[in-house]
Amino acid sequence: MTPPRTIFIDGERIVDSCTGVTNTIDASGQFLIPGLVDSHLHLRSLSNLEDLTSYGVTTALEMNCQNYTACALFKGHPGLSDFMSAGIPVITPGSPHANGFQVPADHLFYPSSDPDEWVRNVFGNNSDYLKIVSEPRGPSPLNQTAVVRATHSIGKQAMTHAADVNSFLEAIASGTDGLQHIANDGLLPQSAFEDMKRQGQFVTPTLSLFKLADANPILWTLLRGFQWPNISYANVQANVATLHRYGIPILAGTDAVGALPINATTIIQFPHGLTLHRELGYLVEAGLSPAEAINAATSVAAKYHRLTDRGVIAHGLRADLLLLKSNPLLNISNTLDIARVWVAGRE
User: Fold this and answer.
1) Cβ distance 113 to 142 under 8 Å?
2) pTM (2 d.p.)
3) What φ, ψ does residue 266 adopt, rounded to 5°?
4) Domain CATH code at residue 180
5) Which residues contact 203 (CB under 8 A, 6 or more apart)?
6) Is residue 139 part of a domain?
7) Structurally, how many domains does the chain consist of?
8) Residue 2 placed within a domain
9) Is it the case that residue 217 has pLDDT exceeding 90?
10) Which end of the chain offers a freer environment for a tag, N or C, measured as fewer CB atoms within 10 Å?
């Protein structure tokens, strides 16, 4: 935190000074941080954006778009969280994601699929980045690498789902930009962290998802299609702690979906907005300082997703701001002590 200062909002931007000020807010004794970024979530309705905004999450990064028309409807709502999205992800026939989520046949990536054509289609439909799902019976290492190369050839970023050791290692080897989730079935080898560091990769571990699944084991059957040996939240925490020790960029993301129906009688609540604040607490429990956890949802998230117009409080950037009544550096839970929120200058 800097010493007390005056922040000017002119339209959608933060500026050093301006004339004709029409509204002055006395925030003495309060704490201003950048609007938060949830780097991994899934939206179902406009009310999800409203929930995010009310909790100071001013940027929402969708990691799976099965319908380009529907995803476009979340974009461009003044006063609500800014929305960006992956396209239809690379999921292969017979994989847990294909079976568990009943992915249509024409949305699947086959051994005969052309990586370059797939990438052109994803970004031709206004996607902001590409998503690959690395999992048992998922795309081969060769296919993963080919898709990543095709993505990089047009200057775009690839994100890869990977939640077990073997799939995580395949994702690292592919050269993907951002690894989504973390291995929970064992500890990653030292070489994995060295490779990620050397290749400039970042990780969005989604501790909230693993915490939720740890309390509701039925989730793993839904997400992975079968029982998985040796999974534990302790493995997740240990792998994130090692990421931190190696200085690998860690981003805050939740995988939040809102209300998650498990079966005819069970619905698990995985709320948008609130869950990101919980994620910051889980990151602190895994070894990050409160400042580092906040950075994971602000400046670090913006930097590694190439969002150069946000993430810090500086002249010329978007006025995405979260005003807190209590100091979050003393207790990370104070990010929930919200006084006001601005999205691109709109309170």
Assistant:
1) no
2) 0.97
3) -125, 125
4) 3.20.20.140
5) 178, 179, 182, 196, 240, 243, 248, 249, 250, 251
6) yes
7) 1
8) no
9) no
10) N
